[in-house]
Input
Amino acid sequence: QTVVTQEPSFSVSPGGTVTLTCALSSGSVSTRHYPSWFRQTPGQPPRTVIYSTNTRSSGVPDRFSGSILGNKAALTITGAQADDESEYYCVLYMDMDSGSWLFGGGTKLTVL
Amino acid sequence: QVQLQESGPGLLKPSETLSLTCSVSGYSISNGFYWAWIRQPPGKGLQWIGSMYYNGRTSYNPSLRSRVTISVDRTKNQLSLKLSSVTVADTAVYFCARVAASASTSWGQGTLVTVAS
Output
């Protein structure tokens, strides 16, 4: 059974840079998985941050960027702000013909 | 701008069938995109339940496939989810979403479904 793995938690100082990653238990993540990243705060629905590997969703600040680093998808926040504290989820398309998705377990990002 | 709103019973008993509706406004389901159901148990992460392509083709999470049906009412522009034989493990917030590989995902607000005897 294929699993998508994210760091359970991460901490960054205000103004610092942090990179969250998204890995597949079998094989490498590539652009063909069209990685998306969502952020979610308690009691709220997820919001799209990045889609199709590196495209920022409307209204997302340019301090957020997406990429493929080695064999993983990555979300980098440059110049982190307190407001960036959130749970971040990645999701990968596992089969474009069927549209099947596989979520990572999420990363709790703390800014302090 | 597309808007999605989930609705349905908030409390079920074990073995009952969960039935939810996602009302879509600002975009016709028949015009494109995948339309998905995702759930989130309390305090846990997101789980993809299944998707329907705009042409009606469906795909389901293998772990739920035997119990899930996703359908669409094009006259009402609504997406539906049925999950049979629910247990307490199906307690979650259920989200509907408009999805595409090369577009931003749009989410509904979610609706909490609790399964308890």
